[in-house]
């Protein structure tokens, strides 16, 4: 039987929360979807969108998380997952296995994605470079 006491019902409408700066990356904006509060920190879900043109990207890192998916809702982004360049376009879903070393290095001006991670207070840890990173395309 599902334990209904460890989470609460949540319904967040677009007007309830705004995109704001101050998240993990200063070149992105984040919109909280209320899931961290509803799950008491078990899961976080937020929308992330481009705020500034890519200059250096995220740098090589990994997350200390049990689960992470990215669902690209608009535009595109280019990642390095270990030594594999990966283009993620609107409609694509990426499951980032725990600890995978990655680098988001390029994205479109309209890029927006839904990110779901467990736990909500996951850590980001810088790692040594895995390989060279292609230069981002200039925004026009």
TrEMBL record:
InterPro entries tied to this protein: Cupin_2 (IPR013096), RmlC-like_jellyroll (IPR014710), RmlC_Cupin_sf (IPR011051)
Annotated Cupin type-2 domain residues: 51-104
Transmembrane segments: none
Pfam family, one: Cupin_2
Record's protein name: Cupin
Species annotation: Rhodoferax lacus
